[in-house]
Design goal:
Radius of gyration: 18 Å
Number of strands: 10
CATH superfamily: Gcn5-related N-acetyltransferase (GNAT)
Mean pLDDT: 84
CATH topology: Aminopeptidase
CATH architecture: 3-Layer(aba) Sandwich
Number of helices: 7
Low-confidence stretches: 8-16, 258-265
CATH class: Alpha Beta
Distance between the termini: 32 Å
Largest sheet: 8 strands, mixed
Structural class: alpha+beta
Strand content: 15-25%
């Protein structure tokens, strides 16, 4: 299905508050890159090349579909990018292949799409925003008959990695992918000496959303020094997008709607 049709359906399915759709113009794509710069560079301290002009982008972006969530003013408050299996042939593979050996993923019996660079504006980090983003992704996944969604979910390493290690261990204990779907990190998380788990081990919102949707963790995390985080490889099968999880996000989004009039854009 073409993106303009997906956008049309997205607008019709959204309420009068947040809307979700794919970027179709250069200005819309750059709005996504600008939000990414604010979150990844200014907030998280990611290292990027000079001459960026306040935009965070890379060589994968021209081949990706950029999904946006916008508020009533039209400002982009959340975004993610989608790299399909067919488009990945033009980039030399998925972005996550830079961090993980995906030999097992290439053997999956069905279409695969990858999401990445997912971010939410600080003022909009609530369930309704993530619900809108997932509504667009789920629609795209269903319309184009993708069997699997993959991607890297980041965990900050501000404390040196203790919280990231604790979160990874917890998820691997309860949500580890089957052996035939596991991946291997190209840069394993550095060993931690004398650091114990702290109370700051709450799951990041995006990672929490993955787990609620039935995703599994592909294996040990990869260390991403440029973004200062630990990345977990996430695999979500379309059959696991169970209705109770989707209802959860929809209900959370509806609960947030009455408060929108009091929230500054």
């Amino acid at each position: 299905m073409q993106r303009d049709e997906a956008n049309r359906r997205g607008r019709l399915n959204q309420s009068s508050g947040l809307t979700v759709g794919f970027a179709t113009t250069r200005a819309e794509r750059e709005a996504c890159y600008r939000l990414r710069y604010r979150v990844f560079v200014e907030e998280m301290g990611a290292q990027i090349a000079a001459g960026h002009g306040g935009l965070e982008r890379d060589v994968f972006d021209p081949h990706c579909h950029h999904l946006m969530v916008r508020d009533v003013s039209g400002a982009v408050v959340a975004c993610t990018r989608v790299l399909t299996d067919t488009q990945s042939c033009l980039t030399g593979g998925f972005y996550s292949e830079q961090e993980f050996d995906l030999g097992s993923i290439h053997k999956l019996p069905g279409r695969v799409m990858e999401i990445g660079r997912t971010c939410v504006h600080p003022d909009w980090r609530r369930g309704g925003t993530i619900a809108a983003l997932w509504a667009g992704l789920a629609q795209f996944m269903a319309d184009n008959r993708f069997g699997y969604l993959v991607g890297c979910a980041s965990i900050p390493m501000d404390d040196g990695g203790a919280a990231a290690r604790a979160i990874a261990d917890r998820l691997l204990a309860h949500h580890r992918a089957p052996a035939e779907r596991r991946v291997r990190p190209r840069r394993p998380l550095p060993a931690l000496a004398g650091q114990a788990e702290t109370s700051a081990t709450r799951l990041p919102p995006l990672l929490k959303a993955y787990m609620r949707l039935g995703a599994t963790v592909g294996g040990e995390p990869c260390w991403d020094p440029a973004f200062g985080c630990a990345d977990l490889f996430i695999l979500l099968e379309s059959a696991d997008l169970q209705a109770r999880y989707l209802r959860h996000f929809v209900e959370r989004r509806r609960e947030a709607e009455p408060r929108r009039a009091h929230i500054a854009a």
